[in-house]
Amino acid sequence: MGLWSVWTFSLLALLHLLYPKFVAHAEISSAKTNDEFHHMEITPTEARVTRKSKVLHEIHNGTKVFGAFETGAAGILKPNNGNRVGKESGRGEEVPIGIKAASNSDQHLKTAGKKYGNKSNHKEKLPVASMMQEDNIFDTRKRAKRSVGTGENVDRSNSGEAQPKEWFLETVQGVSNPRAEYRRSGEEARGSNPRPGEPHLDTSTFALSGDSAHNQAMVHWSGHNSSVILILTKLYDFNLGAVTESSLWRSNDYGSTYTKLNDKVGSRTVLSYLYVCPTNKQKIMMLSDPEVESAVLISSDEGASFEKYTINFNILSLLFHPAQENWILAYSHDSKLYSSLDFGRKWQLVHDNVMLGRFYWAVMGLDRESDVVHIETRIAKGRAQYVKCRAQRCTDANRQYLFPGHVDTNSLVVQDEYVFTQVTKSGRASYFVSYMRESFKRMKLPKYCLPKDMHIISTDEKQVFAAVQEWNQNNTYSLYISDSPGVYFILSLENLRTSRGPAGNLLVDFYKVEGINGMYLANKLLDNHVKTFITYNKGQTWALLPAPATDVAGNNLHCILPFCSLHLHLEMSENPYTSGPITSKKSVPGIIVATGNIGTELSSTNLGMFITSDAGNSWRQIFDEEHNVWFLDNGGALLAVLHAATPIRHLWISLDEGKKWDRHSFSLAPLYVDGVLMEPESDNHIITFFGHFSHRSEWQLIKIDYKGLFNRRCMDGDYQTWHLRNKGEQCVMGEKQIYMKRRPGNRCMLAQDYSRLYSSEPCLCTSYDFECDYGWERQVDGKCSPAFWFNPNGAAKSCSTSQSFLNSTGYRKVLSNNCKEDGRNVYSPKRQPCRPRPPRGLRLSTSPGELAASVGNNVTFMVYLDDGDSLRTSIQLDFGDGIKITYSNLSRTDDGIKHVYRATGIYRVTAFAENSQGSDSSTLFLHITSPVERVYLSAPIVAIRGKEANLTAVVWPSHTRILTFFWWFDNSSEPIITLEGSISYTFQKEGKNKVTVQVASGSTIIQDSKVITVKEFFRSLLLSFSPALDEHNPDIPEWREDVGRVVRTALSQVSGVLEDQLLVSLYPGLPSTAELFILPDEHMSSEHKRSSEEALETISNIFVTALNQGLIQFELKADIRIIVYMTQQTLAPLVDSNSIHSGSAMLMLLTVVFVGLAAFFIYKFKRKIPWIHVQTEDSQEKDPEVISTVGQNDTMTKVKLSEFPSPKELMEKELEARSRGGIGRNMERIVTREFPNCTNV
């Protein structure tokens, strides 16, 4: 035997030198280990350097979730049930290796990494622990460097057979109190049978034969006294980014033996993930690798048998219903959400464009239907909607949009009684909360907090804890606590220490102590030093931790408060297989075990392990190195495993709250421990260690039964009482509490159902049983007084429902505090009558504060009154579109006032409040818009240098006073901005000038451009076409350009004039018309201007002749020829061509005609028109002759009304003029001057 041991140790030592060591690195948040299927991952050193670690998010029903590796973007608003990192991990999503998770650094409402957990409704894909070279699974955060020594190596059989049971006990006498005692036997006792009654561990080892190449594993123990353990091992190819091999193992004897199940699931099936139903852990779902096939494998008997179902989408994450075991939500890689009501056998699409991790099942007791789903759907970049619908009936007609307007992406959290969301406007975020599924209200922090960022830490006990980064903070956050509805927040602790996780998510050093109501720990930055503080009254007062009197060796420490204290690392475990730096347990109130240091500030060096048995009033050091510590036997025993990068073979057990420790061997050969799996709430007393003897060895699973540590069940006489105190003060959270605990040293097993709380008695209230109300601040003497910005006599909305109201005294009772007030009731709100007051501080806004809305959509107006008798104050709201609404009092407007605008425009909305004492008003200007579809720039294609040209932007659909126009001319660096769609502009430079108009409507900007040729002079002709052209005119710009180009080519061919001197522009509308522009030769100098004008006149005459003779033709289609005619030659160069025919030329011609007719008409009938005043030049008429409006001479010729055009005829002429040349306004001016109203005739 001795020779065999020598050879074995030599061989393993040689392997140890040749190959680097494997140590474990955890990368997943998880619920308590007994509820989870865990995933281990082995990663070579080179892969670890170049690739990001896997991150899987898990949630388990009714369990805590730990996860500093949660992603920032995907997790910023998911409820976080106990994880240090951001969200309630109700998801099974994974951030694949090599893909960096998005950071949550953008301004979103988030759930921060808290140090404690809520109850979770979900259970998902089981967490992942990854084993990597150079880094142990217990070493998941930065720590002091240690030298890595060579451990003992003993060759062991890896045949896959179960090893025989062994008992290991090492005990020697330790030192006396107050130091911890360490008992261990001599090495010769190893492997021998223990003496009867001596504490011992029963162990057995099993190797997973054939899986040595697999570098990932998921381990699941069904728990709840089930004997079934499942292990899924996988070979992950980092080059391919996919799983290429897998093996499924199952044990039904608590891990003594395992059976390979590859044949049952299909020998060619590659499994990627395994999920366990949280409400029925016999139901298991496994996913095949989508690179091979997309399918789910379902088991209803803890993996004894499987059914396979093919699916048509790739599952990225699953979310189980908190109560219905067969209901599942599945999120796909293409952002679609599916639901199944038969545990994955059939799937139905719920919604598309769903944000990752932003979907939630109904919360039982709050949502009316249990199949309700809360979803955040993305509708545009940075904008989303909150949608609520039934899982199998989520059609457009059945969807509810509970939040008025859009929300920020990644900003929906549904957690317990609360729904949170966020809206960012003008760079500042506003946060909203819905309590008990009521309407959303804006979350109110102290007025000048001005938050830059907010993270939801907890929603325990119907109260919200939030970490808020204020305007003057950079690397720290402040802790704020709300009232029950989650609306009004007060400051609890400033400058919390924070950091960022590997995925960019926020980690907040804040920890809730389990089992003690109102007790929390926090690390605060104080004078550039991070110190640990404790509170016993839910954040009303904070104090430093007292250091132990002696170290682990019994040496006096002389650490005096406040200059020296104990500081603890408060991170929750990033690895589900380790305990993490700090641990406490509800079933063991008052006991906390944590990693920390003694000194002036928190440090990552010189770390040791510390324990308190009296809820933080006193501490003892138990180890001078870091250990992972778990509670065993319902909290009655402690298990410690060295936190080291070297292989180990010993563990430590304490039965007396860490005063004495027994060392036990769990393996003959040192093991690189990848993790520890246990079911702490069960009575089976089983622990499973898993790891490797070397990096090439099989997976080793060591089953440890620690039932041999105990000799009987605990009886009544085995317990003693313990009084909870706060530095000698017996009243904690308003009551005196006495707990039961096992007498130290008794080797009896605790019963699961024994009551820890022995008795409680309420105390009389003090000021610290109350927190300062919103707007009040705690002073040095402990009293609450109003903040400088707060008016305690304002805000009388509480008078809206009765004749009296509860007026705050500046205090509000701490939630879950059980103190009793004496008869004076000094701190409780006082009921006061509502006295008449005029309305003051009336404020009007939209929800959520936007000043723009779309036409046809609901706009919700919110009316607030800072001061006044709201019960007797009527509110009138004028929407600005002719509709007004009046309310008898302000209480009727609590849920907002909804209104729909049917037309675009800017509306003046006015709220008017009035009562018998006075009145007040508030106004806002609301922009109602509709989407701008297109814009057309109507402009002349030729303009004269130095003269104004009219440009018009025609927008579809038409808008009223809500558009902004940006006019860009040629190479200008700044645009001309107008609110009207037309502008006059003078071009000073000859040549081609590009004009661009941009139309802005809200966040939408569209544009159109035109090229305008600028010349000193030119000639133009109006053209018309054969009627057949109208039948084929689609009236679009491209068609007009093509026809103009064809006409220009035909004119050039007939006349021999270069095409560069010709421009043809077709006008929109019917009939089809165009204008021909004849430009001067560019090569002719300006000195020959007269000859150039004559040349243009000659060319113009040539074109007139050709057009009159029908020589200008073109072929539109094979059997359709279009003839171009001349409509009219312009009398002057065209300056301002618009979308109609040549307006200025037509206007001049019609003006000459009408002026001539008018002169003739007046001259002919100047003495017969009764309303015309005439002064003659007859020398015999001394005075002017005035003609009466009623003629005196019967023979006088009278003008009859019928001789004048009727109003209808005038309108027809105007319309005809507009259709021809768009000169309706000019025509109207001429006609009304020529034919005045003559009703008196």
Q: Care to give the gist of this entry?
A:
The protein is mainly β.
Structure description:
With 1241 residues, the protein is mainly β. The chain is 10% helix and 37% strand. The protein is built from nine helices and 83 strands. Strands 1-6-2-10-11-12-13 form a seven-stranded mixed beta sheet. Strands 5-30-31-32-33-34 form a six-stranded mixed beta sheet, with no helix packed on it. Strands 7-9-50-49-48 form a five-stranded antiparallel beta sheet, with no helix packed on it. Strand 16 and strand 17 (307-310) form a beta hairpin. Helix 8 packs antiparallel against helix 9 (1224-1234). Mean pLDDT is 76; it is low at 1-107, 114-179, 184-192, 1129-1145, 1165-1208 and 1210-1241.
Oligomer state equals single chain
Main pleated-sheet profile: 7 strands, mixed
Strand order within the widest beta sheet: 1-6-2-10-11-12-13
Number of strands: 83
Average pLDDT level? 76
Q: What is the terminal separation in angstroms?
A: 141 Å
Number of helices: 9
| Gyration radius, rounded | 43 Å
Helix content: under 10%
Beta percentage is 35-45%
In one word, what is the shape? elongated
Brief descriptors of the model:
mainly beta; elongated; 7-stranded mixed beta sheet; disordered N terminus; 9 helices; disordered C terminus
List the helices and strands and how they pair.
Elements: H1 2-18, E1 22-26, E2 37-43, H2 45-50, E3 55-56, E4 94-95, E5 109-111, E6 128-133, E7 166-168, E8 181-183, E9 201-208, E10 216-221, E11 229-237, E12 242-251, E13 259-260, H3 262-265, E14 271-276, E15 284-288, E16 295-299, E17 307-310, E18 315-320, E19 328-332, E20 337-340, E21 348-351, E22 354-361, E23 372-380, E24 383-390, E25 407-408, E26 413-415, E27 418-425, E28 428-435, E29 441-442, E30 453-458, E31 465-469, E32 476-482, E33 489-500, E34 506-508, E35 510-512, E36 520-526, E37 529-535, E38 543-544, E39 565-568, E40 582-584, E41 592-599, E42 608-612, E43 620-623, E44 627-632, E45 637-642, E46 650-654, E47 660-665, E48 672-678, E49 686-692, E50 699-705, E51 712-713, E52 719-723, E53 731-732, E54 735-742, E55 748-749, E56 757-762, E57 770-772, E58 776-778, E59 784-786, E60 804-807, E61 811-813, E62 830-833, E63 840-846, E64 852-854, E65 858-867, E66 874-878, E67 884-887, E68 897-900, E69 905-915, E70 918-929, E71 934-938, E72 942-944, E73 948-956, E74 964-969, E75 976-978, E76 982-986, E77 991-1001, ...
Parallel strand pairs: 2-6, 5-30, 8-47, 51-55, 64-70, 72-78
Antiparallel strand pairs: 1-6, 2-10, 3-4, 7-9, 9-50, 10-11, 11-12, 12-13, 14-15, 15-16, 16-17, 18-19, 19-20, 20-21, 22-23, 23-24, 24-25, 26-27, 27-28, 28-29, 30-31, 31-32, 32-33, 33-34, 35-36, 36-37, 37-38, 39-41, 40-41, 41-42, 42-43, 44-45, 45-46, 46-47, 48-49, 49-50, 52-54, 53-54, 54-56, 57-61, ...
Helix pairs in contact: 8-9
